[in-house]
Write a structure and sequence with these properties.
Jelly Rolls; alpha+beta; 2 domains; seven-stranded mixed β-sheet; 33% strand
């Protein structure tokens, strides 16, 4: 705790509970100001050039390159629990993002929109990233029973993006999608 005290016409700060400490009559302001100026001058010095190459940027996370050439960031859901949750209860999907459902088996995978709050485009693909089915502008399910969507053909992955984006990004049956950093 600090309190103000007046000693010999000067205002100084004294720490409570320390009656032995007497305020100094030596003015440290010029010394402190000089030290600050010295530090500022040292910090503002021009950096020396070096021949060290710039650091290589860290690789970005999982992404997908759509037929339009645009790149979307991906959230990859691998476990059965993550895949069951999917995009349920989300009120929005950030621009240029999607969710990828990679499957360990090449089987028939139908999806539904239960507890999904936003319309989605769902894209089923084969092992080479070739689009085999698109469910465009798939609406949220408002009441049970919820319909399921998807082809009756085997697929190895499904990509979900915001409703209406598949058409804008030229995602059609037969087009190819490229995945980056999806391990």
């Amino acid at each position: 705790m600090r309190k103000k005290s007046n000693v010999k016409g000067r205002t100084s700060r004294v720490i409570s509970g320390s009656p032995d400490l007497q305020p100094s009559t030596f003015d440290l302001r010029p010394t402190i100001a000089g030290a600050i100026l010295l530090l500022l001058a040292a910090c503002g010095a021009a950096p020396k050039s070096s021949n060290t190459p710039a650091a290589t940027p860290a690789p970005a996370g999982p992404r997908v390159v759509l037929p339009s050439g645009r790149t979307y960031n991906l959230e990859v859901v691998r476990t059965p629990e993550e895949q069951a949750q999917g995009l349920m209860f989300r009120e929005s999907l950030p621009e240029k993002t999607g969710m990828l459902f990679p499957f360990t088996d090449k089987g028939v995978h139908h999806f539904w929109m239960k507890n999904t709050m936003i319309p989605l485009d769902m894209v089923w693909m084969d092992a080479e990233g070739k689009v085999i089915f698109v469910s465009a502008d798939t609406p949220p399910c408002k009441a049970d029973p919820c319909p399921s969507y998807g082809p009756d053909a085997p697929a190895v992955s499904v990509l979900e993006i915001a409703g209406g984006m598949a058409k804008k990004e030229k995602v059609t049956v037969g087009s190819s999608i490229k995945f980056l950093n999806v391990n």
